[in-house]
User: What shape does this take?
Amino acid sequence: MSDKTNPEAPQDNTPPSLPLAINLQYTKDLSFEVPRGASTFTSLQAPPQVGVNIDVQANRIEKEQSIYEVTLIIRTEATEAPAEGSQTPGPVVFITELAYAAIVTLDNPPQEIIEPILLVEVPRLIFPFARAIISDVTRDGGFPPVALQPIDFAALWQAKQEQNFPEPEGEA
Assistant: This one.
C-alpha cells in the first residue's frame, strides 16, 4: 500500500462570463448647481448634509439586435445642517445630477437574465466611473468631494420589482 493519495483534479473556480460587451460609456447629462451662488460659501458653517438618489434605466436601441443603452442616474443634493433645535433642513448648498450611460451588446443570454444583466450588472460595472465624475464635479465646484458609497444594485432592482409587482396579500 502506498501512503500517497491521488490529488483531485484542479477545480476551475472561474465564474462564468457574462454574455455582455460594453461597447462604450459616456456622460449623457451632467449638471452642477449652486443655487445661492457666492453667499453659500460665506454662510456655510459646517460640512453640508448630502442626500443621494439613484435610478437605473435600460432601453433597447436596435430592434433586430440585442443592443441596449443602460443609464445610471445619480442625483445628489447637499443642504446646510438644520438650525439648532429644528428638524427642517437648511438651504440647498449644491445639486449634482448625472446621467451616465453605457451602450451594451448582449450575446444571446437566456431571457430570464436579460433584465438582471441590464439593471444590476451593467450599473455595477459603470458605477466607479460615475462615482469619480460626481466626486470631481463637487470638488471642482469648491466643496469637499462627494464620495459615493458602493451601491447594491441587486437590492435596488428587487425593490423596483416589488414596487411594480407587489406580492398579493393572503394567508401565509
Observations:
- The beta strands are 20-33, 49-62, 67-79, 92-106.
- The helical segments are 39-43, 111-140, 153-164.
- The mean pLDDT is 87.
